[in-house]
Amino acid sequence: MVAAHYDQPFGNSSALPAYYCARMAKEAGASRMLAGDGGDELYGGNSRYAKQRIFGLWQLLPSGLRTGLLEPMFMSDWAARTPGLKKAHSYVEQARVGMPARLQMYNLLLHLGVPDVLTPAFLQEVDTQGPAKHQQAVWSSIGPASELNTTLAFDWRYTLGESDLPKVRETTSLAGVSVGFPMLDNGLLDFSLRLPDDFKLK
Protein backbone atom coordinates (compact mmCIF):
# COMPACT_ATOMS: atom_id res chain seq x y z
CA MET A 1 0.00 0.00 0.00
CA VAL A 2 2.78 2.44 0.94
CA ALA A 3 4.83 1.54 -2.14
CA ALA A 4 1.80 1.89 -4.40
CA HIS A 5 1.13 5.38 -3.06
CA TYR A 6 4.39 6.71 -4.48
CA ASP A 7 4.49 7.81 -8.11
CA GLN A 8 8.07 6.61 -8.53
CA PRO A 9 10.34 3.80 -7.33
CA PHE A 10 11.31 4.57 -3.77
CA GLY A 11 13.65 2.61 -1.54
CA ASN A 12 13.62 4.41 1.81
CA SER A 13 12.49 1.66 4.17
CA SER A 14 11.76 4.14 6.97
CA ALA A 15 8.66 5.08 4.98
CA LEU A 16 6.91 2.20 6.77
CA PRO A 17 7.42 3.44 10.35
CA ALA A 18 6.75 6.99 9.15
CA TYR A 19 3.40 5.85 7.76
CA TYR A 20 2.42 3.98 10.93
CA CYS A 21 3.41 6.96 13.05
CA ALA A 22 1.24 9.24 10.92
CA ARG A 23 -1.62 6.75 10.98
CA MET A 24 -1.47 6.51 14.78
CA ALA A 25 -1.50 10.31 15.00
CA LYS A 26 -4.55 10.41 12.73
CA GLU A 27 -6.33 7.80 14.83
CA ALA A 28 -5.54 9.85 17.94
CA GLY A 29 -7.27 12.86 16.40
CA ALA A 30 -4.32 14.82 15.03
CA SER A 31 -4.76 16.61 11.73
CA ARG A 32 -1.23 18.02 11.41
CA MET A 33 2.21 16.77 12.34
CA LEU A 34 5.56 18.51 12.64
CA ALA A 35 8.64 16.74 11.28
CA GLY A 36 12.20 17.37 12.41
CA ASP A 37 13.76 16.78 9.01
CA GLY A 38 16.46 19.25 8.06
CA GLY A 39 18.16 19.78 11.41
CA ASP A 40 21.11 17.52 10.63
CA GLU A 41 21.51 19.00 7.17
CA LEU A 42 21.41 22.61 8.40
CA TYR A 43 23.68 22.22 11.41
CA GLY A 44 25.93 19.25 10.65
CA GLY A 45 24.24 17.04 13.22
CA ASN A 46 24.95 13.68 11.61
CA SER A 47 28.10 11.80 12.63
CA ARG A 48 28.97 11.26 8.98
CA TYR A 49 29.86 14.95 8.69
CA ALA A 50 32.49 14.54 11.42
CA LYS A 51 33.78 11.45 9.67
CA GLN A 52 34.15 13.30 6.38
CA ARG A 53 36.03 16.11 8.13
CA ILE A 54 38.56 13.55 9.39
CA PHE A 55 38.94 12.16 5.87
CA GLY A 56 39.38 15.70 4.58
CA LEU A 57 42.51 16.14 6.71
CA TRP A 58 44.29 13.81 4.28
CA GLN A 59 44.08 16.44 1.56
CA LEU A 60 45.95 18.93 3.79
CA LEU A 61 49.10 16.81 3.67
CA PRO A 62 51.65 17.67 0.97
CA SER A 63 50.85 15.86 -2.26
CA GLY A 64 54.33 14.36 -2.52
CA LEU A 65 54.09 12.90 0.97
CA ARG A 66 50.70 11.37 0.21
CA THR A 67 51.45 9.88 -3.19
CA GLY A 68 55.15 9.21 -2.77
CA LEU A 69 55.23 7.62 0.67
CA LEU A 70 51.98 7.17 2.57
CA GLU A 71 49.72 5.79 -0.17
CA PRO A 72 52.24 3.19 -1.40
CA MET A 73 52.90 2.14 2.20
CA PHE A 74 49.34 1.95 3.52
CA MET A 75 47.63 0.79 0.32
CA SER A 76 49.88 -2.27 0.01
CA ASP A 77 48.49 -5.78 0.46
CA TRP A 78 50.62 -6.38 3.53
CA ALA A 79 49.26 -3.26 5.23
CA ALA A 80 45.71 -4.43 4.54
CA ARG A 81 46.51 -7.75 6.24
CA THR A 82 48.55 -6.44 9.17
CA PRO A 83 46.39 -5.99 12.32
CA GLY A 84 48.02 -2.74 13.43
CA LEU A 85 47.81 -1.20 9.95
CA LYS A 86 44.33 -2.27 8.79
CA LYS A 87 42.71 0.91 10.08
CA ALA A 88 45.35 3.06 8.42
CA HIS A 89 44.78 1.15 5.17
CA SER A 90 41.02 1.71 5.40
CA TYR A 91 41.48 5.40 6.20
CA VAL A 92 43.81 6.05 3.26
CA GLU A 93 41.62 3.99 0.93
CA GLN A 94 38.66 6.27 1.66
CA ALA A 95 40.45 9.58 2.26
CA ARG A 96 42.20 9.58 -1.10
CA VAL A 97 38.84 9.46 -2.92
CA GLY A 98 37.58 12.95 -3.72
CA MET A 99 34.18 14.33 -2.88
CA PRO A 100 31.40 13.64 -3.58
CA ALA A 101 32.46 10.15 -4.75
CA ARG A 102 33.68 9.38 -1.23
CA LEU A 103 30.09 9.62 0.01
CA GLN A 104 29.21 6.59 -2.12
CA MET A 105 31.84 4.28 -0.67
CA TYR A 106 29.19 2.63 1.53
CA ASN A 107 26.63 2.41 -1.25
CA LEU A 108 25.12 -1.07 -0.94
CA LEU A 109 24.55 -1.44 -4.68
CA LEU A 110 28.21 -0.72 -5.37
CA HIS A 111 29.35 -3.08 -2.63
CA LEU A 112 27.21 -5.93 -3.93
CA GLY A 113 28.27 -5.21 -7.51
CA VAL A 114 26.01 -3.57 -10.08
CA PRO A 115 26.18 -6.53 -12.55
CA ASP A 116 25.27 -8.92 -9.71
CA VAL A 117 22.14 -6.97 -8.78
CA LEU A 118 20.80 -5.61 -12.08
CA THR A 119 20.09 -7.68 -15.16
CA PRO A 120 22.11 -7.26 -18.37
CA ALA A 121 18.95 -6.15 -20.19
CA PHE A 122 18.34 -3.41 -17.64
CA LEU A 123 21.98 -2.28 -17.71
CA GLN A 124 21.78 -1.83 -21.48
CA GLU A 125 18.98 0.70 -20.98
CA VAL A 126 20.71 2.93 -18.44
CA ASP A 127 23.88 4.95 -18.01
CA THR A 128 25.47 3.29 -14.99
CA GLN A 129 27.68 6.36 -14.51
CA GLY A 130 24.69 8.71 -14.70
CA PRO A 131 24.15 9.05 -10.93
CA ALA A 132 27.84 9.76 -10.30
CA LYS A 133 27.89 12.35 -13.09
CA HIS A 134 24.76 14.00 -11.73
CA GLN A 135 26.17 14.12 -8.21
CA GLN A 136 29.45 15.58 -9.43
CA ALA A 137 27.56 18.27 -11.37
CA VAL A 138 25.50 19.17 -8.29
CA TRP A 139 28.62 19.26 -6.11
CA SER A 140 30.41 21.51 -8.58
CA SER A 141 27.42 23.84 -8.89
CA ILE A 142 27.28 24.63 -5.18
CA GLY A 143 29.94 27.29 -5.51
CA PRO A 144 32.71 28.46 -3.19
CA ALA A 145 32.16 27.11 0.32
CA SER A 146 33.90 25.01 2.93
CA GLU A 147 33.76 21.26 2.43
CA LEU A 148 31.31 20.97 5.34
CA ASN A 149 28.90 23.54 3.90
CA THR A 150 29.24 22.02 0.44
CA THR A 151 28.39 18.61 1.90
CA LEU A 152 25.40 20.06 3.74
CA ALA A 153 24.12 21.74 0.57
CA PHE A 154 24.67 18.49 -1.31
CA ASP A 155 22.53 16.70 1.27
CA TRP A 156 19.79 19.33 0.93
CA ARG A 157 19.56 18.27 -2.69
CA TYR A 158 19.68 14.51 -2.23
CA THR A 159 19.03 13.44 1.38
CA LEU A 160 16.27 15.97 1.92
CA GLY A 161 15.01 16.69 -1.59
CA GLU A 162 14.95 13.15 -2.94
CA SER A 163 14.58 10.97 0.14
CA ASP A 164 13.46 12.35 3.49
CA LEU A 165 10.97 15.01 2.42
CA PRO A 166 9.18 12.84 -0.17
CA LYS A 167 9.05 10.03 2.40
CA VAL A 168 7.39 12.18 5.06
CA ARG A 169 5.10 14.08 2.68
CA GLU A 170 3.79 10.95 1.01
CA THR A 171 3.35 8.84 4.15
CA THR A 172 1.51 11.59 6.01
CA SER A 173 -0.65 12.19 2.94
CA LEU A 174 -1.48 8.50 2.80
CA ALA A 175 -2.41 8.54 6.48
CA GLY A 176 -4.62 11.60 5.98
CA VAL A 177 -2.70 14.22 7.97
CA SER A 178 -0.79 17.31 6.86
CA VAL A 179 2.83 17.93 7.80
CA GLY A 180 5.05 20.92 8.46
CA PHE A 181 8.84 21.15 8.53
CA PRO A 182 9.76 23.84 11.09
CA MET A 183 13.51 23.17 10.78
CA LEU A 184 13.29 24.26 7.15
CA ASP A 185 11.91 27.70 7.98
CA ASN A 186 13.59 30.34 5.82
CA GLY A 187 14.77 32.23 8.89
CA LEU A 188 16.46 29.16 10.34
CA LEU A 189 18.00 28.37 6.97
CA ASP A 190 19.45 31.89 6.70
CA PHE A 191 20.72 31.65 10.28
CA SER A 192 22.48 28.34 9.61
CA LEU A 193 24.21 29.81 6.57
CA ARG A 194 25.74 32.54 8.73
CA LEU A 195 27.21 30.15 11.30
CA PRO A 196 30.90 29.28 11.05
CA ASP A 197 31.81 25.63 10.57
CA ASP A 198 33.10 25.29 14.14
CA PHE A 199 29.66 26.16 15.49
CA LYS A 200 28.16 23.30 13.48
CA LEU A 201 30.79 20.64 13.90
CA LYS A 202 33.23 20.23 16.76
Automatic annotation (TrEMBL):
Which is one Pfam family of this protein? Asn_synthase
Asparagine synthetase domain mapped to chain residues:
2-202
Record-level GO BP terms: asparagine biosynthetic process
Q: Where is the signal peptide?
A: none
A Gene Ontology MF term for this entry? asparagine synthase (glutamine-hydrolyzing) activity
Which InterPro entries does this one have?
A: Asn_synthase (IPR001962), Rossmann-like_a/b/a_fold (IPR014729)
Q: What is this protein called?
A: Asparagine synthetase domain-containing protein
What taxonomic ancestry is recorded? Eukaryota, Metazoa, Ecdysozoa, Arthropoda, Crustacea
